[in-house]
Amino acid sequence: MKRVAVIYGGWSSEREVSLSSGGQMAKAARAAGYDVVEIDAGRDLAAQLSEAEPDVVLNGLHGPWGEDGCVQGLLEVMGLPYSHSGVLASALAMDKLKSKAVYREAGLPIAADKRVTRVEAAASHPLKPPYVVKPVAEGSSFGVLIVREGANSPPQELLGSSWHYGDNLMAEEFIPGRELTVGVLGDRALAVTEITTLRDYYDFDAKYQAGGSQHVIPANLPAHVTEAAMDAALRAHQALGCRGATRSDFRYDDKRDRLVILETNTQPGMTPTSLVPEQAAFVGMSFEALVAWMIEDASCQR
User: Which pLDDT does position 301 carry in this prediction?
Assistant: First the structure.
């Protein structure tokens, strides 16, 4: 019987989401017949893994350290096959500016952007409003600010004591319209989901609180938009060098028929409200089967 270490938790801003994802995956892995050990990842993760002696690591971590290439590098050094993307792809996808450079080279449709520090972004508008300010390397919409058209001043929240998302930011053209997402498993794009929410945008609460958003699958879109989104998600996955499961997020301005890729998540959520499990179910793959697929797809470079 294959022994699987499910690593989750950690200490990033996405710890609570990771605990939920990891717990769900561990439960499914046991139901699929694997010998499962759960590990709340600490800075002594190497020792935790050595003690657990797994055959495979199922990575349920989210956010910095867990999905930016750091833990992937540790697992490579230890020679442990692990789920999801490798070191370089994880690092590229986590950095929004670097991933957009890859998208640009691959000919994918992107929004205009500019690298700024938080002091610069608070001092003057880096782009003409409306625009969005995002931390370069955070997930789950942490630290995202929307500057609306007609805003008299740039976002002063960036200088407040509650800002914990670093100094390196990206200002990005705001794309009006619809929020879309596409999951990819290996070499297959799954489906297009439209996400609707009554909140200002698809923020952390909309993503993870019950009733925070609604997922329409398949999205009610013109056929050419569905095809373009699925094609772009797969191309992004391949251009970044990803493996396993990813999820790419898009905005679609239906008034201008403009589709733009925003980012690719190499550690998509695996909670009850998560999008990739919903898309997998839509194409006939149960949650248990999805987790088993991730385990069997695990690899490393040793």
Answer: 82
